[in-house]
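[Q] Does anyone have a clean structure-token version of this?
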Amino acid sequence: MAQPFVLLPTEDSHQTLQIQPPSTGLGLRGRIRVPGDKSISHRALMLGAIASGETTIEGLLLGEDPLSTAACFRAMGAEISELNSERVRVKGIGLQNLQEPIDVLNAGNSGTTIRLMMGLLAGQRDRFFCVTGDESLRSRPMARVIQPLSQMGAEIRGRQGNTRAPLAISGRSLQPIRYVSPIASAQVKSSILLAGLTCEGQTTVVEPALSRDHSERMFQAFGAKLTVNPEEISVTVEGPAELTGQAVVVPGDISSAAFWLVAGAIVPDSDLLIENVGVNPTRTGILEALQQMEAQITLENERIVAGEPVADLRVRSSNLQAIEIGGSLIPRLIDEVPILAVAAAFAKGTTIIRDAEELRVKESDRIAVMASELGRMGATISERPDGLEITGGAALQGATVDSYTDHRIAMSLAIAALQAKGQTQIQRAEAAAVSYPDFVPTLQQLLG
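[A] Here you go.
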């Protein structure tokens, strides 16, 4: 049988993923592990760099985004061993001891890297930093972080009226604030709290809905004084902080597991076990949404690892039903909306996803791109100002589609292609490596 998954180089140095599923017997079966959680990997590297003593990290994600974080902090004086998934050692240099780099810091494609670093760098007194990223990152909004940091006294300048990278940051003494955020964003919250670590007093962030809380958990593990008020949906950190290096174990990323959860649900005769997945309650919106769609998903071997809840996830083929989602659930599955749209294309009825306008300023406009590219494959899908409307049941056809250099788009389209008739070619598919370097080999493993 011909190889169903082939990566083809192109003349412009990109790669095209060609998918030709077999006509019969595709059922996905087996046990797999997904890469380490990207959010936790970033934070472990950052807090390790500004703590006193050594931090060890097991299970670190080896995607391009954490590589960018490590490179930035090495350039500012932190000693970080070669990145691997076994054990990474970070020799911290202390909260206020980041060195002024001799060159521009490059965050690559990573919004987490640049936005969280801004909070830390703003409070590094009498030092200057310039931060940039790739073409995609330079087009993404930074004002949502710059504005609250400016209220703390930060001096940050950027393109387009201080809204786009590259950014010039002059470190200053900051003042604590109480910030009522208009959006539920872990990046915004974390950046302000990191700035709060450097200044005298209590810094509070209030959110309209609960965003992922990896920063809060890790702050406490590293010794920061932190208070969470669930009734107000707020978190307060007291500075200046003294952080101590820790042993961090990174669980599998539920955002990466989401692709296999949907694949297992939509491909007939599938039975997958995804081991060692982080099931932090602020991240399990995708599980709730798929279970509302009547996906057969169960949690097994539930446990706590280094302060984070972990479980093995089993998914079996399912007859999915359409749902409507929005409100407070969206921040808990915002990164999984593209693959949820794929699930909706195979569900009975019309699925409506609302309150997800944040997707328009991710690595791509994920609302527009998913509507366009799934539409090319024959899905009945349309844009809403704040989300998507998908009527399931249309037979998908293989087509030439584009990832728009967005890792989650590339992988979502690949999962859709498993149930499309004929060959699908996904252009610029190398984007998957941002968060899941072994995505294609895992596809091949499951089919074999």
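[Q] Thanks! Anything notable?
[A] The mean pLDDT is 95.
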